[in-house]
Amino acid sequence: MGRRRDVRRAAQGAAGEPPHRGELTLELAAQLRDRVWGQGMPAPAFDDTFDVMDSRVVGVKHLRLSLGRGDERFDAILFNRTEPLPARIRAAYRLEVNEWQGRLSLQLNVEHWLPA
Description:
- By secondary structure, the protein is mainly beta.
- It starts with 6 loop residues before the first helix and ends with a strand.
- The protein has two helices and five strands, in the order ααβββββ.
- The protein has a single domain, classed as CATH 2.40.50.460.
- A five-stranded mixed barrel has the order 1-2-3-5-4.
- It is globular and about 35 Å long.
């Protein structure tokens, strides 16, 4: 199993190396959500390269994505886009706790992307 990411490391090192295998978890997303972020200390964003495994339009103008990184799979959302993405992207994203029908899950909120 990969090294666990301490929430302080996530907040301080977000602009550095991408989270290691096994570190993108619902637990980390909940820890980040429960912190106070604001002016001068925005919530951390991460960047990494992903394979786009699947995508579908939701809510008329958003893409629900399934992203792969090695043997890991992540649910993701990309707002205000309906056109398909290339097969591989480099994405800047924030970790979120997605609550849907009483179920909590990890979701990557893709804020920017480029073909990889």
